[in-house]
Amino acid sequence: MSEIRKIAAKTAVVTGAGSGVGRAVALALAGAGWSVALAGRRDEPLRETARLAGEAAPVLAVPTDVTDPGQVDALFATVEERFGPLGLLFNNAGTGAPPSLIDELSYERWRAVVDVNLHGAFLCARAAFRAMRAQDPMGGRIINNGSISAHVPRPKSVAYTTTKHAITGLTRSLSLDGRPYGIACGQIDIGNAATEMTRRMAEGIEQPDGRVVPEPVMDAADVAGTVLHMASLPLEANVQFVTVMATTMPYVGRG
Q1: What pLDDT was estimated at residue 2?
Q2: Which CATH architecture fits 11-245?
Q3: Which is nearest to 243 in space by CA: 149, 141, 114, 142?
Q4: Distance (Å, rounded) from C-alpha 161 to C-alpha 244?
Q5: Around 107, how many Cα atoms within 13 Å sit in the side-chain half-sphere?
Q6: Is 107 a catalytic residue?
Q7: Contact (CB, 8 A) for 29 and 83
């Protein structure tokens, strides 16, 4: 078993790969020689990520709704057929809801966030775990995208914060259950990477004291470099949890 854990196949699945952190991570992996399957709901952004990757490594766009069990299973079957054994899942796809108090949040909007952030992460982790446990040699790595909100909430973020706390439980369970099979699981908690999703932070976002204040952001490429480091470790080593954030963002002392 110790030999099985030393090296993972350099094949990766990145969800939410059409933009933001997912795109940055996919490009970093491809640049390091990984074969990368790009998953996301919209085909055109995935193709743009593939175009940006160039000829650095094999890259495959696979439009996938991560909330659909059949589409998720088809994604991983396609990866196995095209690339062979799976080395990495970057479980990244996520969404949020407009800021609102819990009594102002519709069930439909709550459910939409939970479906992507939690159910989607579960479905992708389940498919990756199944593939990694069945392949020969066994093993691989799952990296879940948590958030600063996996630790502390922003005001009026009940749906997003709840799902990101749940991701921490998923990470810990996978870490424990994956041990006998050479499957490592870690979590990256990101604070204010500059993406479309965080644009409003630079413009001004509500603080716990009610003020609306612009917050600093960092380059998503710095997140990608951290994920690449985690992915490049031998399977006998694991980064269990790591926080990467804009240095002066209000995280320490938030609230």
Answers
A1: 42
A2: 3-Layer(aba) Sandwich (3.40)
A3: 149
A4: 17
A5: 0
A6: no
A7: no
Spot the catalytic one: 107, 160, 181, 251. 160
Q: Rounded CA gap, 37 and 210, in Å?
A: 42
| Structure token digits, residue 99 | 């800021």
Please say whether the beta carbons of 146 and 104 come within 8 A: no
Considering the entire predicted model, what is its pTM? 0.92
Q: What mean pLDDT comes out for the span 191-220? A: 81
Secondary structure (3-state) at 255: coil
Name the phi and psi angles at 206, rounded to 5.
Answer: -65, 135
CA distance 90 to 81: 19
Q: Which amino acid is at 136?
A: D
Confidence of residue 201 (pLDDT cuts 50, 70, 90): confident
d(CA 201, CA 130): 38
Domain spans in the chain, listed from the N-terminal domain onward: 11-245
Q: If you average pLDDT over residues 149-173, what whole number do you get? A: 94
pLDDT tens digit string along 91-117? 999 999 999 999 999 999 999 999 999
DSSP 115: I
Distances (CA, A) of 108 to 99, 105, 111, 162: 15, 8, 5, 15
Helix or strand run (H / E) with residue 191: strand 183-191
Q: What value, to the nearest 5°, has the Cα angle with vertex 13 and ends 43 and 136? A: 140
Do 93 and 66 touch, CB atoms closer than 8 A?
yes
